Sequence to fold (378 residues):
Amino acid sequence: MSTTTTSKGLEGVVAANSSICFIDGDRGILAYRGYDIHDLADNSSFEEVCYLLWQMRLPKRAELDAVRSQLARERKLDPAIPRLLKEFPKTATPMEVLRTAVSALSMYDADEKNMDHDANLRKAYRLTSQIAMIVAAYDRIRKGKEVVPPDASLSHAGNFLLMLNGQKPSATAERALDVALVLHADHEFNASTFAARVTAATLSDMHSSIVSGLGALKGPLHGGANEAAMRMLFAIDKAGADPVEYVKKEILAKGKKISGFGHRVYHTEDPRATHLRTMSRDLGQSSGQPKWFEMSHKIEEFIKREKKLNANVDFYSASTYHVLGLDVDLFTPVFAVSRISGWTAHVIEQLDDNRLIRPRAEYLGPDYPNHYVAIEKR
Fold:
């Protein structure tokens, strides 16, 4: 029997060493490879962050150009993948489609059976480009629209919006999504990342590890909070209700939790929410849709005052993504469009110095030995 103490949900348990992401929940710090998320959000791009996560340092100009070129080269899908997307049932959700399509990608990957560092790095580039393409392509296919080819002159964020909406995005929209991708790129050992590392530790392949991450992300306790937050805003708008009164009567009075507030790790403001709040406000104003931010801000002030809870990354990403033209059920897949950079970095790190992840459980069953009794005597 185990004699170690346990923590429900492994809260506070250090499961492994990593040099990728640093979080200090008491001080509200998030850093990739030591670089503060505020510094990266203000100054870098998603492509630069990808290089940082994969190569452990910021790129030089020529290296950044090479990242962009390689991501552009990898924006292609075997013809079998779009055909597969068209075959899924109408009831399939984008997350179900993404999870299944990524699994299928492995069968068309030239490096599928190659597990060395360089091959896994090539897969990281490939999957980062392909996941964005799959999310955008499936959304258009399910709406009866033609799939839009990528444009090598655009950034990763710009390409995603082009492939999704069928037109070149404004500079404001492109930059807003780029910052959102930077903010969501990694977050230490969250559920999906840990799931990906557990799978990688068995010496399974990169694609299987990412499918494990996607499966964990699909769960509403990990992904989905921004979807719920946006549906709440829709309900408030449809009812013509005061946002605070709606939250009081329809959520808190009924014993429900309000999505987008509180965090397992942060005990102060989620540093990602700081940027998304500003983005939501600015995008709302520039697009002529300020009401989503205004409702959100009133709710945030009330919840912070009454419940002493801070908004997390999901709360303001809801209104930000909506104004960018994303359907609500695309919010979680777009998280994956960003987090694939962190997932692949963690899989590479795991495989570069691997040991099978095999924790123990504290046994709480009947005392040992529990002697077998013949069925006639039970």
